[in-house]
Give the backbone structure.
Amino acid sequence: PERCAKLLAALAAPERLKIVRYLAGGTHTVTEIAGMLDVPAVNVSHHLAVLKSAGLIRGVKRGRFVDYSLK
């Protein structure tokens, strides 16, 4: 039940659901995700941290960028 509650809480925000759907199509950077959502990158970073904490996504450092994808 705790794991389910954590996953549901991570997916509770509409923006996070959009991010998960977007990442289903492949890896993307914060800048690309921010452009898709039309929100500041700092907001996207917060949403990505929540999704990463829930174990739904992973980030792979590539130079000064991080490529995010679904786990």
Notes: The longest strand covers residues 57-62.
